[in-house]
Amino acid sequence: MHDTTLQMLFQAVSALAVVGGFVYAALQFRGWRTAQYVANLTTLVELQLQLRKMVVDDPTLAPVGLVLPAEDQEEEMRGYFYNLMQLRVFEIAWFSHQHGQLPEDYFTSWVANMAAITKRPAFRAMWRSDRTKILHEGFRQYMEQVMEDTRMLGECYTPTKEHIASTSAASARRVQS
Fold first, then answer.
1. What's the chain's average pLDDT?
2. What digits encode the pLDDT tens for the residues 57-78?
3. Any idea where the domains of the chain sit in the sequence?
4. Left, alpha or beta for 131 (phi > 0: left; psi -120 to 50: alpha)?
5. Distance of CA 111 to the CA centre of its chain
6. DSSP 6-55
7. d(Cα 106, Cα 111) in Å, to the nearest integer?
8. Buried b (16+ CB within 10 A) or exposed e, 14-50
9. What is the spatial distance between Cα 55 and Cα 31, in angstroms, rounded to a whole number?
10. Residue 39's pLDDT band (cuts 50, 70, 90)
């Protein structure tokens, strides 16, 4: 009887070790998958930024409809793409934060900086333009909320952790529905 109990105890411990190994592997895979999502988005944004830099360097590469008159071309296009690049870098930070890859305090500093940038007329002009802006839909909604809050609260707008969490959650819910 004693040997049978001991044998069952060893089998139970072995089974728990195997199950624990599977759970650990699944959690590792999930973490790897999340990191891969962020890496994929980052690579796509980097490639888009390289394409936009090419257009700034040689405006004749701009798609039809984006070409500006020669006298306005260089400065306006450079300003537009500069603001768009700032937006896209912030999109990477937002996406990383959404997937738990960017700490809350660091993301809060990004939001505060971006709120200041959204007050600039050149940034607002870029945002309102009908030129191509390929953005994650949740990020687009998040930015609309940040810009609305910045517009309504003006200079006194300072994003808090609670506000960031609520606007992030709200934009995520709108995308999922």
1. 78
2. 776 766 655 555 555 567 777 8
3. 43-176
4. beta
5. 11
6. HHHHHHHHHHHHHHHHHHHHHHHHHHHHHHHHHHHHHHHHHHHHHHHHHH
7. 9
8. eeeeeeeeeeeeeeeeeeeeeeeebeebbeebeebee
9. 37
10. confident
